[in-house]
Specification:
single chain, 213 residues, mainly alpha, 84% helix, 0% strand
């Protein structure tokens, strides 16, 4: 694993917070009407994606960047705590890398394959992509985050530990809601998860910056 200073780790945290905040806004403004959690009517989703294909694809590109920034943040945290808990950190990165693969695969399907499809074909492709990102990808991120938080539990301030617990609880909630095909649960859990994660990443970045001073 490469050497990562507290200053570099703080930068990775800030980048993850900023890019995921942007992704959350993109979801609300450009993608929500094309996903089951935002629009329950399948024909309406298909019509939206067909009529806004460029916006749809650019929006998922932003989410690609958010996923990559999350892995970068995890790498920075793993490097910070690898001497204390090397096995936990390695397992966390394996989970995060698996989550990234599932996430990017799902977002690629949504961006590149879904536009132009119709009817049951669209519904089948959409359900596969949603399961990949909402259940598998998000679930693996959550497990990785839990492992990293446990690895750093003796160094993180109590406030950040409690906030991390809330983040990963919301992430697991999203995975369960996706597995249960609950659009309402997916919407509610994502609405809780995104601001909590952005806040936690930003505050963790500030804590790392203070360590670097």
């Amino acid at each position: 694993m490469v050497e990562v200073t507290p200053r570099h780790a703080a930068a990775a945290a800030y980048v993850a917070a900023a890019v995921n905040l942007t992704a959350g806004l993109v979801m609300l403004l450009a993608l929500r009407q094309g996903i089951p959690a935002g629009e329950s009517d399948l024909p309406a989703r298909i019509a939206y994606v067909t009529g806004h294909t460029l916006t749809w694809r650019l929006g998922w590109l932003v989410w690609n960047l958010a996923a990559i920034s999350l892995l970068g943040f995890f790498v920075a945290l793993a490097a910070t705590w690898r001497d204390r808990a090397p096995i936990l950190c390695e397992l966390a990165l394996l989970c995060a890398a698996g989550g990234l693969a599932a996430d990017l695969g799902a977002e690629t399907i949504l961006a590149a394959v879904s536009p132009g499809l119709a009817g049951e074909t669209y519904a089948t492709v959409e359900s596969i992509a949603v399961a990949l990102t909402g259940y598998l990808g998000n679930g693996l991120y959550a497990v990785g985050g839990i492992l990293l938080t446990w690895a750093g539990r003796r160094e993180l301030p109590p406030g950040l530990l409690w906030l991390a617990a809330a983040v990963w609880t919301a992430a697991m909630w999203l995975s369960v809601a996706t597995l249960a095909s609950s659009a309402a649960g997916q919407f509610a859990s994502a609405a809780v998860l995104m601001p909590l994660f952005v806040l936690w990443a930003g505050l963790t970045g500030r804590w790392l910056s203070d360590r670097a001073s």
